[in-house]
Request: fold
Amino acid sequence: MGKTALYRDPVPFRPARARVELESDVLVVEMPDGWTRRHVLDGVSPAVSDGFVTAGAIAGRVQRRFVRMLSLGRVTVITPPEQGAVAPNVVRVPEAPADAAIVDAPTWTALTEWLLGGGRLAACSIGELARLACIATPQFAVIIGEVAAQRALELVWIAAGPLRGAFELDALLQPLVDAARSSPRAAEALVSALAHSAGATRQRRRR
Reply:
């Protein structure tokens, strides 16, 4: 027997969210029922597309709702159906798998940007690193913080001389500070970033 579609909840329609944690090469997905799987990302070709889910009967009518789908081989991650527009029946898009993992839009965006960018921290801006830290494991969050600090320090050091002070470290790390207000993982990344920047600054001064 196949899995029951987790997004076909009664009205009021707000399907339960899955929880994801990201490592550099592994995605851990914990479904609302507690079922957890680890998905190795090495060699996976992510695919992003539009799709729909059946949102259940609303005012006596069954509605289809648009979602964004991130397909990673054996797992599909989708945006919240209740936030998507109504999909007319004439629109030809695939239906999301019944066992798709539903995550909040910021989580979907952070994960998608990371995977489509090739899974390289060096290619991320500090803002992108801050969003990524929110869905990282504790160990990966520490690494993300170090990378964010190094990126910020490089900008500060480039601005040394006549333009000294144009790039303040605190201002450059502000996206991480903002994310840390609502995310424990981003807070861990921020602590890591501050520790790394302090250590790197001391080493530079000794030279």
User: Anything to note?
Assistant: The helical segments are 105-116, 126-133, 138-158, 169-172, 174-180, 184-206. Residues 11 and 140 are 38 Å apart (CA to CA).
